[in-house]
C-alpha cells in the first residue's frame, strides 16, 4: 500500500529549497509531509530519520481520535513541530523501522503517537486527506474522523476545497457515492462496536443515527442480520474460544 505521508525527525540542521522556497530546518525539529512533497526532501536524507504512514494507518488513526475538522484557506505544504522529547521520538522511529517490530498493537500505538504530535497544527487534517490518492479514500478518512457527526456532502466539499458537482463526478468515476461511503463506514464501525457495546441505542448514536429503529433496518439490510443477532454470534464465538483455551490449559497441567 502506497504511503500517504511521513513524519521526519531532523538530527542535523540543514538549509533546503522546498517547492521554490528556502527553509532552515533545526536539529530536533519534527516535520510532517505528504507523499508528494516528500520527494523534495530526498537530497537531504542524511540529515533526518523518518517513518511513513499508509492509508490504512491514517484511516485507523482518524477512527480512534476525535479531532475537529478545521478548513484552512491554503493547504499546508508540510507541518513543523518543536519542543518534542527528541530522545524518545528517536527511539520510537528507530523501533518502527527495525526488524524487531513484531508487536502489531504496540507498533500501531507508536504510529498514532507520532501523528498526534501534529494534531493541534492548523491544516493537520487537510494534509492527511490530501495525501490519499483516491477521492473516495479522502472522503472516507474525513467521515471516519467523527462517525457520529451528521455529515453532509457540503461538509466534505469544504474539507477538500471542491464543488459538490465535481465531487459527485469524481466519486462516480470511482464507482461510488458519498452516501455509500458514509453507509459503509458507519456499518463497519457498528460491527466493531457490537463486539464491546451491548446497547443497540448507544451503537446507533455513536454511528450517527438519530433513530435506533432506522439503524437496525440499515444494519440488517447491510449485513443480513440484526445487531442483536450479530452480537449473539460474537458472544458465542468468544465463549467457544475461552472454552478451548481452558481445555488447552487443563491438558498442559
TrEMBL record:
GO terms (molecular function) for this protein are: DNA-binding transcription factor activity; sequence-specific DNA binding
Instruction: Extract the Pfam families matched here.
Output: HTH_18
* Record keywords: Activator, DNA-binding, Transcription, Transcription regulation
Question: Which SMART domains does the record cross-reference, listed alphabetically?
Answer: HTH_ARAC
Where are the coiled-coil regions?
none
The protein's matches in PROSITE patterns, at most eight in alphabetical order, are given as: HTH_ARAC_FAMILY_1, HTH_ARAC_FAMILY_2
Per the database record, which ranges form the HTH araC/xylS-type domain? 137-233
So what does this one do? Induces the expression of gadE and mdtEF. Could also regulate the expression of other genes involved in acid resistance.
Name of the protein in question: HTH-type transcriptional regulator YdeO
- Naturally occurring in which organism (per UniProt): Escherichia coli
Amino acid at each position: 500500500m502506497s504511503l500517504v505521508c511521513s513524519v521526519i525527525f531532523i538530527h542535523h540542521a540543514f538549509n533546503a529549497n522546498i517547492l521554490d522556497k528556502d527553509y532552515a530546518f533545526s536539529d530536533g525539529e519534527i516535520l510532517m509531509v505528504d507523499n508528494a512533497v516528500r520527494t523534495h526532501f530526498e537530497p537531504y536524507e542524511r540529515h533526518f530519520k523518518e517513518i511513513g504512514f499508509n492509508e490504512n494507518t491514517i484511516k485507523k488513526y482518524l477512527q480512534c481520535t476525535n479531532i475537529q475538522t478545521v478548513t484552512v484557506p491554503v493547504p499546508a505544504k508540510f507541518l513543523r513541530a518543536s519542543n518534542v522529547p527528541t530522545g524518545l521520538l528517536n527511539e520510537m522511529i528507530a523501533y518502527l523501522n527495525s526488524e524487531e517490530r513484531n508487536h502489531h498493537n504496540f507498533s500501531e500505538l507508536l504510529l498514532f503517537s507520532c501523528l498526534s504530535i501534529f494534531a493541534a497544527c492548523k491544516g493537520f487534517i487537510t494534509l492527511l486527506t490530501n495525501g490519499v490518492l483516491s477521492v473516495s479514500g479522502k472522503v472516507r478518512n474525513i467521515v471516519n474522523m467523527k462517525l457520529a457527526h451528521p455529515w453532509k456532502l457540503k461538509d466534505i466539499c469544504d474539507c477538500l476545497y471542491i464543488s459538490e458537482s465535481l465531487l459527485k463526478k469524481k466519486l462516480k468515476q470511482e464507482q461510488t457515492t458519498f452516501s455509500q461511503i458514509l453507509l459503509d463506514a458507519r456499518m463497519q464501525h457498528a460491527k466493531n462496536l457490537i463486539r464491546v457495546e451491548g446497547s443497540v441505542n448507544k451503537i446507533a448514536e455513536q454511528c450517527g443515527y438519530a433513530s435506533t429503529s432506522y439503524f437496525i433496518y440499515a444494519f440488517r439490510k447491510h449485513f443480513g442480520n440484526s445487531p442483536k443477532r450479530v452480537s449473539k454470534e460474537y458472544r458465542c464465538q468468544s465463549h467457544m474460544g475461552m472454552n478451548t483455551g481452558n481445555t488447552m490449559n487443563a491438558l498442559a497441567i
